[in-house]
Model the fold of this input.
Amino acid sequence: MKKIEAIIKPHKLDDVKEALHAVGVAGLTAYEVKGFGRQKGHTEIYRGAEYTVDFVPKMKIEVVVDDALAAAVEDAIVEAARSGKIGDGKVFTYDCDAAVRIRTGERGPDAL
Amino acid sequence: MKKIEAIIKPHKLDDVKEALHAVGVAGLTAYEVKGFGRQKGHTEIYRGAEYTVDFVPKMKIEVVVDDALAAAVEDAIVEAARSGKIGDGKVFTYDCDAAVRIRTGERGPDAL
Amino acid sequence: MKKIEAIIKPHKLDDVKEALHAVGVAGLTAYEVKGFGRQKGHTEIYRGAEYTVDFVPKMKIEVVVDDALAAAVEDAIVEAARSGKIGDGKVFTYDCDAAVRIRTGERGPDAL
Amino acid sequence: MDLQIALDTVWVLVAGMLVFFMNLGFGLVESGFARSKNTVNIISKNFVVFAVASIAFFVVGWGLMFGDGNGLLGLKGLFMLGGADNSPAVGDAYSGVYSAISWTGVPLMAKFFFQLAFAATAATIVSGAVAERIKYGSFIVFSFLLVAFVYPVIGHWIWGGGWLAELGFWDFAGSTVVHSTGAWAALAGVLVLGPRIGKFGKDGRARAIPGHNMTSAMTGAFILWLGWFGFNPGSTMAADPGAISHIVVTTSMAAAAGALAATATAWKILGKPDLGMTINGALGGLVGITAGCAFVSVGSAIIIGAIAGVIIVLGVMLLDRLKIDDPVGALAVHGMGGIFGTLAVGLFAQEAIAPGTTGDGLLFGGGLGLLGAQALGVLAVGAAVFGVSLALWLAIKATMGVRVSEEEELEGLDIGEHGNRAYPDFVQTETVA
Amino acid sequence: MDLQIALDTVWVLVAGMLVFFMNLGFGLVESGFARSKNTVNIISKNFVVFAVASIAFFVVGWGLMFGDGNGLLGLKGLFMLGGADNSPAVGDAYSGVYSAISWTGVPLMAKFFFQLAFAATAATIVSGAVAERIKYGSFIVFSFLLVAFVYPVIGHWIWGGGWLAELGFWDFAGSTVVHSTGAWAALAGVLVLGPRIGKFGKDGRARAIPGHNMTSAMTGAFILWLGWFGFNPGSTMAADPGAISHIVVTTSMAAAAGALAATATAWKILGKPDLGMTINGALGGLVGITAGCAFVSVGSAIIIGAIAGVIIVLGVMLLDRLKIDDPVGALAVHGMGGIFGTLAVGLFAQEAIAPGTTGDGLLFGGGLGLLGAQALGVLAVGAAVFGVSLALWLAIKATMGVRVSEEEELEGLDIGEHGNRAYPDFVQTETVA
Amino acid sequence: MDLQIALDTVWVLVAGMLVFFMNLGFGLVESGFARSKNTVNIISKNFVVFAVASIAFFVVGWGLMFGDGNGLLGLKGLFMLGGADNSPAVGDAYSGVYSAISWTGVPLMAKFFFQLAFAATAATIVSGAVAERIKYGSFIVFSFLLVAFVYPVIGHWIWGGGWLAELGFWDFAGSTVVHSTGAWAALAGVLVLGPRIGKFGKDGRARAIPGHNMTSAMTGAFILWLGWFGFNPGSTMAADPGAISHIVVTTSMAAAAGALAATATAWKILGKPDLGMTINGALGGLVGITAGCAFVSVGSAIIIGAIAGVIIVLGVMLLDRLKIDDPVGALAVHGMGGIFGTLAVGLFAQEAIAPGTTGDGLLFGGGLGLLGAQALGVLAVGAAVFGVSLALWLAIKATMGVRVSEEEELEGLDIGEHGNRAYPDFVQTETVA
Ligand SMILES: Nc1ncnc2c1ncn2[C@@H]1O[C@H](COP(=O)(O)OP(=O)(O)O)[C@@H](O)[C@H]1O
Ligand SMILES: Nc1ncnc2c1ncn2[C@@H]1O[C@H](COP(=O)(O)OP(=O)(O)O)[C@@H](O)[C@H]1O
Ligand SMILES: Nc1ncnc2c1ncn2[C@@H]1O[C@H](COP(=O)(O)OP(=O)(O)O)[C@@H](O)[C@H]1O
Done:
């Protein structure tokens, strides 16, 4: 199995979720992260003092899939998350050794 | 070493932590995530308009352990986190190449 | 490519970010986590009842880099995050199979 | 005699303070009903709007409203409260240029303070409806113009001895003068601005954009309810024990009935007792009773409040259908509630309750005369305020612009307009767009 | 004369507004002391309860409490304030059916408004104790019954010329009438409901379930303290300068002493100055002084407040031991505080402070008579309210159910009961179960 | 006659309640401007400080301030309001030991309550400036000493018939007595404590440490504005209709002007309309008008407020440059605002507005006399309060310590000092250090 992690713009989450659903992904996990990269943060002001916020809010998505599906998932994410503006994010792929569904104890691709 | 990631129901965190402690895990890391899967979200109402919340709150746990401990950890999590109801979550296992304890610089299993 | 994950004390985030920047890292992702380990939590009181908070707030950093940079990144984090006190955290290293930059579709180390 | 003046003054000032405090109520309801990324912007608007209104009403608003003039506007003592005035003298003893408000025996400054608090309310109503997309500077300019010119002219028609008052139009505490005026000005702004990004889905259906803080909304609603105990009974501008006691009770019972009716309606239609609707319903009941609080019985007040509560729920849902995006329900509460409340005087007023004022309404055998005058006032004020406001909003749009950029709207107005965040220590998420 | 009426009316109305505002205070303390997943539910309860109480007290509560009748309940002018009444006439000049409250020279509507605000308080107290597990609809039904029937009957016994008043029982502003009544009704509900999931560990020991918003709790506590300046001095129902000044000071000093004593006690016992205890202590001081505020000296008020503060800390901890789960400390504050405050009249009252009322208490040489009457009242009210409330709760349980499902409780009542969330833009976590 | 007393009493008590309510305003502004990890500590300080002040002022503060004595301090009736006093008698009819405040015809308890609320304000001001690093216990001790001894002695000089009053120094409602006193005491504390960890970067430049809750800050600011309607017009301590109406308007217009001027200044200098500055500006306008509210025209009030608003913005930035770390801007608002407001009396006062008091100020042809007296008062109070406070802070530091450990400061004072967290259900992050 493969684990695919994507860092995307927060307001793209719904689109990505739907795109993944469309290619047959049954489950995924998401969470708020702060990103640092080419897309710069911004300057804030607080009671007269300026300060720079380097991190921008991003959403991270994780989905574990069968090897066969990995490429399609990658592509689906890239397409759904792209706005063409800096900061659209990244997709990373990793090996996943084992998966278990807690409820049933099913293992491997069946657990997904 | 192995990294074991589990997505569980939030109120199971304490039980899982204790189960892991029991099998000899000395440290772990947890955080709030949103899960999408077979367990459906719910419909909310807001000032007359309905909307669907697809994501349900989950807790994610990460623990890096010596290869020898991996199977026991997996089992401990599955057992402690199971309620038998849909949405109990998953356990995923990955390879971990290296570990360092920042405080001492110890490396490998000693760092855990 | 390698993925390096570090769990550090929250107020070290800026220092670590700068150290990574210095060794040539262009992007990273960070988020709040709760850590359980040798560093003990604390006891809180609430309207007369005591309770133990086992988890301490930590910051987790993820950075994917070219294999060549991995060792330098590890070292940079360890150095910047170290206070010498218990709970300084860990650095873990994993293999990363693939990376894509969503905006451009660039793949591999170019995507970083 | 002197003691009467002192007591009336204490009452009017305390009531004015309560109305002033409504600014906090509006600020909390409106920001609570919006997203956290726009909180600094909304509370900035609601904080600064009272300051802007203070200057606008002082400089020229008061004079236009209460200065002696013709049926349309005040012409004497226009600027900076500068006209002759021997308040607290009343009746024949009064000599000055603000005769339209010489019936109350309190000092000029007490009159000004109380009326200022009302004027500011009209502007605050606008704030909520245009929230989450309007430029801060543009809102400030519009608020100034509204309180300096639009509100006082309408006020003159009704409370300044103008043509509507002459025609037998009654609006005791301002269902029309304050609430409808604010709502019509807001409606023009909402139409010029267009809906927020994400409010209407690709299928054209309204999507919920949940407010970020129901604790704020509830707090604001209670503060508004409290403030209305200044708004309505204070409009006696005298410590008349019978009248103020009666009005406190009609006001509160209408709010209670509005809250319950809205809760029940939402429960029935939506399947759940939606808190936002309960709150809007209470406010709708309050707006609804504002015109008639001194003229109707407690029983009628309960009925008026309950009908207003139902109207507000249906109104919020109707506006969603019409693709009119009002993040806080201000158009339903102050607009529909204000119109209904004004008409309700024509239905429920009773000669016996405030002898020598409205006479009996339709349901108490008074015929259609009063109702007709009320309807005429509703139409005239609606047409005038909406028309002029539309022109003002369009002029502002053409000159300084009225809506923030798409990028800024997505990121939130707090960073873009103010460089601040409301809650920097908390990890946040986005429910919608 | 007329001016006296006007001034008394202004005072009573302003005091009533402050008591009304206490609803916000309770809403904030109670929701602040509970978890974020139940916030919409709690603030909905606290918002709607005043509306429910308004209708209940108007429809029949007022008549049962103040209508002429026998020692047990009012029988005349029962419905909708409909009895004869020529208020503000007083004494021999009064003719009407609400003679028990004809001693105050304000219009009937002012009396109603002030008393309504009190009645609603009793229901609000219940809200906190049953929080985080009660069905919304069931709470509404119980609140209606409490304010329509239970509270007014108790009120009749003590303030409506009933049997306890006859016996020489004194409760100036309602330590028993309002606070204990609310607490006994709450205790019955708490027992019928059982503790929240997770409150008591497998070992049977109480676990802390921290409240989600200490800012809310502090805000609510200050609003309550402010509201008590209406509650206690307003209970004169007349602008008697000496009495109201005295009562403002006894009230405030008791709150201060309660806050300090509770802080010190918590610091001593728990090792830290727990904010929740400081807040509960201040409220305990306020409840404690409510019965005696007009009858005791400032020095005694400080002592009463301090003792109440200590009692509240020990009381909260004791209830945890007894496995009685009250998420906000309402049973300790209003129950134990109310009982102690009522008894304190029997100890600290001084003839010289309010001549012709209580006479001297035990510590000032007055013997055991007063204390005995006070104790009798405490017992009678406790037995009656607890018994009837238990029956009502059990009836509600048998018919519509009283507690939400386990699943709903774990997920939070906000989604389950209301389909809303209080803070959707924030990432949340769970401290306990 | 009696009715006059009753009306005055109602007015003074209501005004006192509003001033009491300012404690909540301060608590919300101060905690909103600080980080979430220190919220419990700040709101605990602000909650308990009124309780501490109540005891301190009752035990000895009142006597030192208003007891008959010499030009420096009161000597009679020192303890627990225990001196002879036949209030509400005034003038020749008065016999007692508190003659300095015998000009107002309200009962002693009303005087005490109103003055207590003022005394507590001075202590509350300190709370914000020393926030995020002070030990809870040490703050309590300092507050007690401030209200028991320092504040009353200064108060005696100016309002207790002391030497500054003799010299023709005028401070109607306390720009100096309350606000500057609080600020000087705070400055001493700030210097003894040193800046928060992380406030000044390695380069020595000030870093922003954003406050955690702008909703709290805005709420607090509106509550303070409301409270000032008690603070300033209430200082008449009589329901004089002309005076109180005038003062309500000067107070409110100065706040409005302060808010607008600060917003514009921030917008100009910083490029954005920083909400924190808008809020500080409004408060600066209020502090600025406090000394002169009864002595200046409405037009002058607007000018005073506007200047104060500008001063506050520049002052906050200046203190950052001077490496003086005041998390909430209290030194600028209450210190600089208080000094300016006191001097403004010397510039803008007009004999015609309050005949027989200040006479004309410099700008109205009155010469330098008044301005000189004002300047002298500013210097004398500054030197005395700063000096004594410094000694007290150093003594506290030497005995019980004044600052929490570095580790505790980094983790937050809530856990360390109280064992509580303010918002346990929310995932939190750290912006700075
Ligand atoms: N090497 C990296 N490792 C982990 N996350 C990264 C890395 N580089 C970028 N990111 C994440 O991707 C986000 C977007 O990257 P950025 O450089 O801003 O723009 P782009 O994706 O257009 O190249 C960052 O905010 C960060 O969260
Ligand atoms: N393929 C997947 N990759 C990553 N996370 C997943 C995946 N499938 C499910 N999850 C996570 O597991 C949680 C539980 O899955 P769900 O399908 O709802 O129930 P169950 O665990 O009973 O099969 C989801 O909410 C999601 O967070
Ligand atoms: N085996 C592990 N797997 C994952 N995270 C761990 C593991 N052990 C420790 N951690 C994380 O590292 C943090 C620091 O560990 P701790 O044992 O407290 O101190 P130290 O880093 O000094 O050894 C923990 O709070 C936890 O977040």
Strands of chain A lie at 2-8, 28-36, 42-46, 49-53, 56-65, 90-95, 98-101. Chain A touches chain C at residues 2, 6-8, 31-38, 54-55, 58, 60, 74, 77-78, 81-95 (CB under 8 Å).
